[in-house]
Design goal:
This protein is an all-alpha fold. The protein has one domain. Helices cover about 70% and strands about 0% of the residues. It contains ten helices and no strands. The protein is globular.
Length: about 190
């Protein structure tokens, strides 16, 4: 087996699997985020604690782990960027430290697409804000935004279309319970 594949897999997974939402809420709120709201370790659930600064910090740190995974890979293993992106993303969703029960991957995905192209990041951000203001559902906004990024990539950039499609499919998977709640009009709305 190629040693480079192992090296990239190890640091990408370990970066992705750092559960910042859990760490921050334990340190600053003395609470376990897994026992609050949806039980998820991500930004949206941290926001449910009522502490916006912790939610923003979680978002930024989860974003940075995706970003730095790609930057490191770009410098040392340029031909393995998509591989690194996927492994980091999987690390966030299935962290070994939490019995493979992690976040939904959107913030780490944001870091990955920021490192791939600032255009992807801007497209996601603008789409997410528009749909969030219109419908007030973070889950719906994330799903649609990741779809739009993939479509843009497919027609205009093409280099990362396959990995962006895989991300879109995984984001649908991680939001499957949200999709059921949306269908049943039971999904919680966000306050912007």
């Amino acid at each position: 087996m190629d040693t480079n594949l192992i090296i990239v897999a190890v640091y990408s997974y370990l970066l992705g699997s750092i559960p910042f939402g859990l760490v921050l809420t334990k340190i600053f709120l003395k609470k376990d985020i897994r026992e609050i709201g949806s039980g998820n370790i991500g930004t949206t659930n941290v926001l449910r604690t009522g502490n916006k600064s912790l939610a923003v910090t979680t978002l930024v740190l989860d974003l940075l782990k995706g970003y730095f995974s790609i930057v490191i890979t770009f410098v040392y293993f340029e031909n393995l960027i998509s591989y690194s992106a996927l492994i980091c993303f999987i690390g966030h969703i299935f962290p070994v430290w939490l019995k493979f029960k992690g976040g939904k991957g959107v913030a780490t995905y944001l870091g990955v697409i920021l490192a791939l192209s600032y255009k992807f990041f801007l497209i996601f951000g603008i789409t997410w804000l528009v749909f969030s203001f219109l419908f007030r559902y973070a889950s719906l906004s994330s799903i649609i935004s990741s779809l739009i990024v993939f479509v843009y990539s497919y027609f205009f950039i093409n280099n990362f279309s396959l990995i962006l499609f895989i991300f879109f499919v995984i984001i649908i998977y991680t939001h499957r319970e949200n999709i059921v709640r949306l269908k049943n009009s039971e999904e919680s709305k966000i306050k912007l």
